[in-house]
Amino acid sequence: MTSWRKMVREWELDPDKRKLNPYEPKVRGFTLHRLRHDLAREDAELIKTDLAAQAVSSQISCHQLIYQGIELEEQLRRLRYDMMHMGNNPTYLACAKLTERANSLCRRVKAFAEVQVLHMPVTAVLQQQASTSNESQAVYNLPLFLPSKVFQMNSSCEMVLLDFEWRIRYAAAHDALEQMRKHLLGRNAVLEWKNQYGHGVQEGNCSQADVERLNAKISACTSQYRMHFEILKHFAQKLGKVTWGTELCPLLDEDIRSISHGGSNNATGEGYVISSWIWNTSGVDHTDEENVTDCMSPFMLMSESSNNLEGL
How far is CA 175 from CA 33, 34, 222, 236, 310, in A? Predict the structure, then answer.
């Protein structure tokens, strides 16, 4: 307690807030928001000492460029998924919204390519080659030419850009795992409610819709994590990243499961816990496990409360 009070006093007296924040939770050490803060501070220090970097970063900084590129990559991937799952007879309104969304992403990708040339001049040549080879292509297939893609095409750019991308993807992989864990907890809560309180066609359809919605979110987190993991694995040795593999592992289909406990009829016993590596890696946040009811529909919550009142 004395050491913690000392940390609080030092942090409050520090005008630049460079001391370790004692109020900051230590459960998840790698989050995308925290990494963006660290990269912004590094970029600020670089701009102070490097006049060339200050001139180039007047429009967009290096880490902002890479972050926006990865964000666009994720939005293009979601657009592809939504277009592939429109159904056979979509309404005019659904088609209009999807087309407007595709047009907006197309404009954003073109604007991204214009500012990308400032930090990665080689992308101007790659963009021209891509435009001549593929005159007509779907919006979700538009190339972004992030540093990892540039190196995979046997071209080159500054290594600091590749390092920025690697660190952002490393934090994004941790965030994808955390979101997957929360969706798995939510699916468990819905299934437990269905077994205990669910009865009738209406409640069955409602709970099944919630399960399908959570399964879709789990699949999205899975594909996002696997995409980041492949790039991390490919460039880890090139960037000298050694210990990253102790926390992130290849995600197999059998690894995507909730924590299961042995039952009374199980030979392992009720206290036996079966879990995947995704629950044993560092950064597992248990603070939101009590809020898994957010994944339930209002109808299910009302039904559960009425059942609890009947039991009183």
Answer: 10, 11, 11, 19, 41
